[in-house]
Design a protein that fits this description.
The chain is α+β, with helices and mostly antiparallel strands. The protein contains seven helices and eight strands. α5 crosses α7. The longest helix has 23 residues. It is globular, with a radius of gyration of 18 Å.
């Protein structure tokens, strides 16, 4: 059974308007589709975690989006927020979902709608099924296969919830020995690799660590 990580790209006029909002506005890194109802329905209900602020411009864009039927926002203390939304999928959304469903694949959450305009997602299924799904992706959507491996049920994709900058900070920290025991690297070393201020590097690491640890607890906590 194969585990495949994909990056999808499409023209701005084909993106969901709220994804395009993230692309066009500073301060918004990505929106992550955490949970949703059965895909392919005429009206879909989803829970997103949006990495960005302020909330007000995002709300205004939701109000203006024709395919948004209902929404609710819950803010977080780390300049992110959760978004409940009901909406009508576009024809492009339907075609993409149909390609995956007909192939018989499982989509692994979260799906990341990133500020660089790409959609990052992971799929699980037999190797030939994965290939058929990739070939069936509609015209107008570019497909970049980022990684292919055997599926391990113990895998959890904490890295998928990180922004590119947060992941780069963690990778730099690992390379310079920041997480070694005893520690041999500093936030200054991470900042030098990222070409940013030490305070900025420390903030990237703090946010990345917070997300990874929260995801680990969510995935591995047993019943009370």
């Amino acid at each position: 059974m194969k585990y495949v990580r994909l990056s999808l790209s499409m023209a701005p006029d084909l993106r969901h308007p709220m994804h395009q909002f993230v692309v066009e506005h500073d301060g918004y890194d990505a929106s992550y589709l955490v949970r949703g109802n059965a895909l392919g329905e005429d009206v879909q209900t989803f829970l997103f975690h949006v990495d960005g602020h302020p909330v007000k411009p995002y709300r205004e864009a939701l109000e203006a989006a024709e395919n948004v039927v209902e929404y609710a926002v819950s803010t977080c203390p780390d300049e992110t927020f959760y978004l409940y939304v009901r909406g009508n999928p576009s024809e492009q959304d339907h075609e993409l979902v149909d390609a995956l469903i007909k192939a018989g694949l499982v989509v692994v959450s979260p799906i990341a709608y990133r500020a660089d305009g790409t959609i990052r997602l992971a799929l699980v299924g037999p190797g030939r099924t994965v290939q058929r799904a990739i070939e069936a992706v509609p015209d107008g959507i570019g497909v970049d296969v980022r990684a292919v491996s055997e599926y391990d049920s113990r895998r959890f994709e904490a890295a998928a919830t990180l922004t590119d900058r947060q992941f780069a900070a963690v990778a730099a920290a690992v390379e310079c020995g920041y997480y070694d025991d005893p520690r041999s690297g500093t936030t200054e070393d991470v900042a030098e690799r990222l070409d940013c201020a030490p305070g900025t590097a420390a903030e990237h690491l703090r946010k990345a660590e917070s997300r990874v640890m929260a995801r680990a607890v969510e995935e591995y906590s047993g019943p009370d």
